[in-house]
Structures are given as C-alpha cells and as structure tokens.
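ERR on first pass: missing label on line 2. Operator R.T. fixed the label and resubmitted. Corrected input:
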Amino acid sequence: MIRLDQVSLSYEKGPEVLKDVNLHLPEGSFHFLTGPSGAGKTSLLKLIFLAHRASAGRVHLMGQDVAALSRRQLAKARRQIGVVFQDFRLIDHLSIYDNVTLPLRVAGQKEASYQQNVIELLDWVGLGGHIHALPETLSGGEKQRAAIARAVITRPKIIIADEPTGNVDPEMGIRLIRLLDELNKMGTTILLATHDQTLWSQFAHPRLHLEDGHIRHIANTPEPHPEAPIAVADEVVT
Amino acid sequence: MSQNHPPKTAPQTTPQTTPAHAALLPPKSLAGPALMAVTMVMTFLACLALGSSILVDRAANQWLARATSAMSVQIIETRRQTADQQLPAVLRQLRDAPGVESFRVLEKSDLIRLLEPWLGQGNIGEDLPLPLLIEITPDSRQPLNTQALAAEIKAVAPGARLDTHGRWRETLETTANALRLFAVLVLTMVTLATGTVILFATRAGLLANEEILNVLHQIGAMDGYISRRFETHFTRATLLAPVGGLLAAFGFFDALAGRVPGAPETQFLVALTPIPVGAVVISWLVTRSYVMRRLTAQF
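pass 2 clean. output:
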C-alpha cells in the first residue's frame, strides 16, 4: 500500500531531513510512527500524503509511483488519503457539516448523494448534535473528531495522522485512536505519528521509530495483534 | 462518541437537517475595509486623472483649432499704392488659393472696435491711418500652404502681409503640449499607484486565506477548481471598490457641468470605465497567478 525505496528529503538547499529511508506498509496495517522531535516524522508523513516531493528515491502509493503521476492524477490520489493534523485544519467559517463534506464537494459529488451518510458519520463520531456548529464553538476533542470525519468521508484507502492527540486530553486521545482502530478493522491502512508513549503503549499495533533519518521497526507489545500485517523497515527490533 | 462501526450504507431515517453549503471562502474581511476604502479612493483619483487628461487634451485641441483658424491679411499703404488699391489683387489671390474656405474684409467699424481697448473709446479719429484687414477661414478639409500664399500676396500687393499668428500659436502649442504631458504623467503615476494598491490589497486577502488553499489542495481539489474559487471570490470582493470610485468620479465631473465644457457628456463618462475594469482585471490576474504559483510550488 505504502512503499518507500531509498527515499531522501531535503527542503530547498537545506540538510537532508530523511536519508535513504526504506519502508513498506502493507494494505490494512496500522502503525505508530514515533521518534524524537525533529526526527523527521512530519516530513515522512508529508511524503506519504503527497504534500512534498522526495529529493531522491521512489515513493509508491497504492501501487503507483507518485513521481510519474500528473497533477490531475496526484489530486485524485490525494482523495484516497485521509489526513488528520494536530491543529485540525478545519475551515473556521464553515460549519462542521460543510467542513466534513468538503472532500466530497471538491470531488464534484451531488449533495443529495451523500447528505444522509455524512449525518450518520457525524453521529458515529459523536458530533450529531453539532452539524451546524462552527469549529470555534467546539472543544479540541470535538474538532479532532470532525477532522477525522473529514478524513474518512471519502472512504480513503490510507489515513495519515500527524500527532492527532496533541491538542486533546489523554482520555480523548485514547478514544480517538479507538476510532481510527475501527476504521483500520474495515481495511484502511493507518499510519499515526505520535510522541506520546502512554498512547501507543496501550495498543498492540507495531511501531516505526524514526531517528537520525532512519526507521526501525519495533513490535509494540510482547504479543502483537495476530492479524496485524508486519511492516518492512530499515531495521527490525523486537 | 459511538463505539459502533463506521457507517457503511445510507441510513434509513430522514436526515434531521438539510444544511445549505456555505461559500468555500469567507464572505467578509477578505480584503479589509481599510484596503477596500484605499482601493476606492485610488480608483477615484485615477478616474480624475484620466478625466482631467481628456479635458486638457480637448481644451488644447480647441485652442489650437481656434489659433489655426485665426489667420488674416493686413494691407498697409505703400509709396505707390494705397491699401484700397492693393485690395482687389489680394482678394483675387485669396479666391484662387487652395485651402482657403472663406474670407471677409473687416469694416472700418470692426477695426475701431478692435483698437478701442488699447487706444480708448472715441480716440480713433478719421485721420488715423488704419490698415485693411481681411479675416481668412482656412478649409479644414484641405491644407493651406501659408508660405506660398504669403509670397503670392506679397508679389501682387507689396503692402500686404499674411499673418498666421505663428509665434502666438507656437507658444500656445507648447503650452498645450506641456499640459498634455503633465496630465499623462499624473495619469500614469496615479494608475501605477492604483495598480500597486490593488495588488497589495489582493495579496493581503490571499495570504489571509492561504490555509483554505492548502486544505483544498490536500483533500484532492484540482488546481483549476481552487483557482476558480479564489478568482471568482476576489473579483467579486474587489468589484465594489473600483465601481464606487468610478461613481464618485461621475459625481465629481457631473458637478463640473457648465464650468468645464464636455465634462458630463456620456461619451466622456464612458471613457473613464477602463479604470475600474482595469482594477478588476489586475485583481483577477494577481489572484490567478498567486494561487497557481502557490499550488505548483507544492507537490
């Protein structure tokens, strides 16, 4: 589903943030991405959710080499990748309903075809009573649930979450991960960056540790989830 | 938060709401009120500069047209012939000359009236020798060769002299051209300033909404889709200010009716419309180039 071969990344003429990274995340996997601040977690995620171009190496998503895609194809590929940010990135003047339906609007879908599904999805994430609310009236946890709803509304194949629990309390953080867990059980590939050990230690999903530009794969618990596919990374530590 | 599985199918119940989609870009505060006011004032000034340059050009053309038509032949007596003796030959030359539409020999009373402002009323007696004066109206459709005509007149009437008022006309022409140049310079400077203000106003509005651009890009919107939303929004948002400036300029020139000829004419007012149109076009171009540049800079 996600494959990086000898990928490096540097911003303009700056130093390399990522160097010769190899990574293979199978379809339907759920991985935590950990590492110290400045290790390049966000940069790695940006490569995967197509916000940045790799300086070197190959990035394959859903079986396609992203370097070979046209701008139109890249836009369509982004619709298959749901992204959840730490700072939510909801549009302030739009209601929760409008924020969540945004990916469907830009894809040209008619409102009648999705209206009921959106309302059901908002119910599912616990925001059924906030359809008309503006983001500024919601708590951090509610905003993040709205952001997750927006990320999953197109039923993407991949969900990338960059510190999604960074602005919510620990209990809400756990509940958000469970929400993503439910999506993973439906077959969505999930990669979640976090520096919060109390968070990833409560789940059986394997961990990718990024440090000094390299990735190590670490089994998260003594007994990883038996159905969880195992990733291939630069190094495997158990 | 529900712990059920995510919805797979459409629910069977009627939705509790039928929300109407809001515009992707916020309706207010894209270009702040202060920037809109500055844009309106600058458009108004640009309209004034353009209108003034048109009026100056028209006035200069009128002055020069009058100066060109103010041509005369003056006949004074010589040792051999009186002015009256020379008159028939001069009139023949004028009749035959191409480029002369009409001419009129001024009556003595006309000459006295012309001289009275300098010599005083009643001071011009019968004994004061006055030249004969012929007023010439050149044919506007046919050029008049003044040098040839002057030579021909001189040949048949030594006391006659063609006066084209050349020196006065040259001075007038120089003044008119200086005024035209000044008006064009003012117009250019004000137009450049207006364009710059609109450019910065639009860029400020775009910067304030860059997050929306990034979100739309991230969720898979095509470049054209994003660009069109921004172009439409900013063109609409900046439309009001230039139109306001144009209407204020209309009001200003309308107030000049009667003082400045031609100012409130429809044709004149229509000539001002390129300014607000240009303002809107600048805003549209800045928006389009900014959005496309930002998008193509991303992956």
